[in-house]
Amino acid sequence: MIHQEVVETARTLIGDRVFEQARSRGDRMTIAEAIVFANELSLDVTATVPPVVSSSKELSILTTREREVVRLVIEGCTDREIAHTLSISTGTASRHVANILHKLDVPTRSAAAAWAIRNGLK
Predict the structure, then answer these.
(1) Which of 3-7, 50-54, 95-99, 115-119 has the lowest mean pLDDT?
(2) What is the DSSP code (8-state) at residue 49?
(3) If you classify domain 2-118 with CATH, what class do you get?
(4) What's the angle, vertex CA 8, arms to CA 7 and CA 14, rounded to 5?
(5) Which of 22, 120, 121, 33 is closest to 76 using CA atoms?
(6) Is the dihedral of CA 38, 98, 66, 87 positive or negative?
(7) Quick one: 83 exposed, middle or buried, by C-beta within 10 A (0-12, 13-18, 19+)?
(8) Would you say 100 and 66 are in contact if contact means Cβ atoms under 8 Å apart?
(9) Residues 6+ apart with CB under 8 A from 68
(10) CB of 106 within 8 A of CB of 70?
(11) Under a CB-based contact definition with an 8 Å cutoff, are residues 117 and 59 in contact?
């Protein structure tokens, strides 16, 4: 999918070593830190990354409950915090997050949050 294409393009452009260093740094960031970092960059990626066009079809990938969960993920909530907010068990919250990652074909919560933001879920 688009995520894998972007990852491979980035790896090719900057090289394996630099890519892995950047990925490691990014993995240690909270969602809030990643957003601040991204906003500080002045990159023109429009030439290499296809624009994401939001549509009801894309948004319909997620159930109403999954949209609620991903909004909480955007806020940086843990599974326990999601469970408390939505009055569900922590295990159910974890399953929702796992289902979201699978449906969106993304490896991390921050990637799911980025997808959701790009597609109008805030």
Answers:
(1) 50-54
(2) S
(3) mainly alpha
(4) 90
(5) 33
(6) negative
(7) buried
(8) yes
(9) 86
(10) no
(11) no
